[in-house]
Design goal:
With 94 residues, the chain is mostly helical. It has 2 domains: 63 residues; 30 residues. It has 2 helices and no strands.
């Protein structure tokens, strides 16, 4: 190994370390941007779901949903549940 190679080797190592550090920083920034984008997408989807659910509940009274009159009769309560299930199915409620 020549004298010139010996003096430049540490510099090459430092340069490689700097290049690797820059590469890692760029990857970290890219991952952070992707995470932020995913977070915005999740938040938008959550808002859309809430709006859909709100829309369903706003439409509910227009369909004259069955009511419960506190009667102690289990059959009356069962009919109420079945009526609500039919209504939710008709409204395509999840």
């Amino acid at each position: 190994m020549s004298h010139e190679d010996e003096t430049h080797s540490p510099m090459r190592g430092d340069l490689m370390k700097l290049m690797l550090l820059e590469l890692l920083q760029n990857q970290n920034e890219q991952i952070q941007r992707q995470n932020e984008q995913l977070q915005r997408m999740v938040e938008a989807r959550e808002r859309a779901l809430m709006e859909d659910n709100l829309h369903i509940f706003k439409k509910l009274p227009n369909h004259n949903p069955p009511t419960y009159d506190n009667a102690p009769n289990p059959k009356v309560f069962e009919n109420l549940i079945q009526g609500l299930e039919k209504l939710f199915n008709a409204l395509q409620c999840p």
